[in-house]
Amino acid sequence: MKFAVDKHEKYVVIKLKESKFTNNNTPKLKSEFILLNAEGYHNIVLDLSAVKECNDSQDLSSLLVGDRLCKNTQGLFIVTGVNNTVAKILEMSNLDQSLTIVKRLVEATDLIFMDEIEKELLGRVERD
Question: Collapsing DSSP states into helix, strand and coil, what is residue 39?
Answer without folding.
Answer: coil
